[in-house]
Design brief:
Length: about 300
């Protein structure tokens, strides 16, 4: 079994608000931790400094009941609950770390569309220091884990995370590397067939290096890999058979409040129909990871 930094997590933190989309995230988290006998934390960012004691006590009671119901149905999983005062983005981001997986729901069930604009999941995926999963409603049977790689440290870290997830599920890991011809040349200079062959071979080498590393670190895991000439985000989403999880790496560009994602990660999340996890590079995680807000959390643990 692989024992790398990006794998073998024993806790899944669920951004909780008792909504249908939060329950999607909870169901997924419980299924994940059931496979490894792990722990789920329901973290409800509720109200603010002006919240009344009665409302806070009510929230504590409700989330404690939610946790107890889950444990009654799945005793293999330890479920804890916590209420914290403050903005959900600030509080969840502050609790994210490389040793846990933070998950939130993805869809507005009334419209079945991804919540855009102030989407909590997109903001967390862009800036939280640990891996972030965005979980849509479950649709149909799916199998295996798919990860996109590009030769970067972030994508290798994502591949390690994906390998750990596939191993715990007893499934297959599919590694996909997408590539395109250099756009700057195409209009003025048609590409020679020999050059295209050389380009393909160079990209196949990137994939082969990643597969060699993951195969060494996860020797019992079933792994397949392929290069795709085209946009990798679409290749990940359209992988066959339909995966139960898509994993992507992000360099975590930290402009304007650290809220920008890489293009592939962003496109995957905007077109999400299956669970997806964004994993940052170790270098990015070691950078400034202070919460966007200067206010400290005020826990109210149940």
């Amino acid at each position: 079994m692989g024992v790398m930094d990006a794998t073998n997590r024993t806790e899944t933190i669920v951004g909780w608000d008792r909504s249908p989309s939060a329950r999607d995230a909870l169901d997924w988290a419980v299924a994940r931790e059931r496979q490894r006998g792990g722990r789920v934390l329901l973290l409800w960012a509720f109200g603010d400094i002006a919240t009344s004691r009665h409302d806070l006590d009510t929230a504590r009671t409700l989330v404690a009941k939610d946790a107890a119901q889950v444990m009654a149905l799945t005793p293999e999983v330890t479920v804890h609950a916590e209420v914290v005062l403050g903005d959900p983005y600030d509080r969840l981001s502050a609790r994210s770390d490389p040793a846990s997986l933070l998950v939130v729901g993805a869809h507005d069930h009334a419209s079945r569309r991804l919540r855009l604009g102030a989407s909590l999941g997109l903001r967390l995926a862009a800036s939280a220091p640990g891996p972030v999963g965005i979980i849509p409603p479950t649709r149909g049977e799916r199998e295996g884990v798919v990860v996109g790689v590009d030769g970067s440290e972030a994508s290798l870290n994502a591949a390690r995370f994906a390998a750990g997830e596939a191993e715990s599920r007893g499934g297959v890991l599919t590694v996909i590397h997408g590539w395109l011809e250099p756009n700057v040349w195409l209009d003025a200079f048609p590409l020679e067939p020999e050059f295209v062959v050389q380009l393909r071979e160079a990209h196949e080498l990137i994939l082969d290096k990643c597969l060699a590393i993951i195969s060494t670190e996860f020797p019992t895991l079933r792994i397949s890999g392929r290069t795709v000439r085209g946009h990798i985000a679409r290749s990940l989403l359209d992988a066959s058979p339909s995966p139960e999880l898509v994993v992507v790496g992000s360099q975590g560009r930290r402009l304007v409040g650290r809220t920008l994602l890489g293009s592939v990660s962003h496109e995957v999340l905007l077109n999400l129909e299956i669970p997806a996890v964004v994993v940052h590079s170790p270098a990015d995680r070691n950078a400034d990871s202070a919460p966007a807000s200067g206010h400290s959390a005020q826990p109210a643990t149940t």
